[in-house]
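Hey, resending since the last one bounced:
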Amino acid sequence: MRARRDEAVSGLVELGWTETEARVYRAALELPGATGYELARRAGLARANAYEGLARLVSRGAVVRLADRPAARYRAVPFDELAPALVSRFSEAAERVRRLVAACRTDAAEDGRIALVAHRDEARELAQGLAAAAARELCLAQSNEDARHVAPFAERALDQGARVVTVCLDGCAAPCGACVGQVRRPGAGALRPRSLFVARDEQVALVVAPSGEGVYARDPALVAWWRTAFLATAGEPMTAAKGNGGG
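The structure tokens again:
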């Protein structure tokens, strides 16, 4: 039982939640209608930390505030109801990127935090640089034609101790060796084949459309959003892993 509860927290953290948010959400699932104090005790957190995480969950729509008197009580929204919203946000973000790329042909946005990528060769060079520099985490969504260019640099990230998660957008029936790390099939809402996504250490990310045009972002908030959506749309793991758990 405890192992399942810990795995639930770990899974939520993989989706970009903080551990505090994940523990409070799990506690709210286990204690419907509980007060903030009760949730803090259940989650094993200091009250100040628990209330801070609870406030973020309420603003995100993951927890609903039921009443204020005599004390505020809370109910967790089942994750089955939250997951479609995460997928929808990712699809909407991808569509906004597509419109942005189609409408703009300049090389860079004025503020310098976002640059437009004009063609696939440029995108592959950026992807290689991101993969080679990953120190803690590398997230990839790619088709085989891009994987052949990125794989040697993703393997370098593995050698440096980075956690590598790869979604094979071609949906291969079995691992073909082109992908590196924890390899997963594309889930609902994943990018289309011939798209490319790379996120390094939750700091820099690249999203490329099937046309080869894309966006390179150094905006931490945007990168965090893309990373969360990527993890939410990653499907089931593939077997016969290469590296730290993939194919």
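The chain has two domains: 2-77, 80-237.

Sorry for the duplicate.
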